[in-house]
Write a structure and sequence with these properties.
With about 220 residues, this protein is of the alpha/beta class. Helix content is about 45%, strand content about 10%. A 5-stranded parallel β-sheet has the order 4-1-5-6-7, with helices on both faces. Helix 7 crosses helix 8. The radius of gyration is 17 Å and the shape is globular.
Length: about 220
Amino acid sequence: MRRLVMWDIDYTLLRGGGVAAKAWKAAFTELTGVPWRDTPIFGGRTDTDICTEVFAAHGVTDCTHERFFARYVERVDEIKHEFAAQGQLMPGVREVLAHLGDDPRVVQTLVTGNIPEVAAFKVAAFGLSGAFDAEVGGYGTDDSVRATLVRRSLERARVKYGEHFHPVVIGDTVNDVTAALANGAVAVAVATGATPAAELTAAGAHVVLPDLSDLEATVKALTT
């Protein structure tokens, strides 16, 4: 059985340098006319979940998620060049993706709280697009609950490839870990975000890595 390796983006593959958050705030005020007041915690959450909280915190009742996301994509598209200028890849990412890309036993995709268009902008900014089968990913428009994103990705992979996969989720937050466990997936956590390694271990991660710089250890965690 092949492995479906589901990559989180933010603080797992890369740091976006605050570019998406800037676009989010601009799109929100342009669309609603409401000044930005409260910034939610973004880490490990889906854009659908975050959008619901932002609307509630700002008293917005006459805007849909779909309208907001359309404007948000426009704003990110305008400044997407800033991802590479202000952000950075996490250590070891290119080497790990390249190694797994040469392994016929592995399909790599994205399971991220980002909406699909923004996910694509982020990985493209660092030349990573070709590493992933984005068609079978799970995204922030799929559901507000992250575990559902993992399930949707598995379903899409089964339909496209006509086979069952052994799922592996790699991310930097407790939400990534719990989403993996809820779907019977191997949970590989990387302590390159705001969540300490001890918390990732306590959440039930099968493997916790300090970062991805140890190619042998990372590949072993994702493939065995």
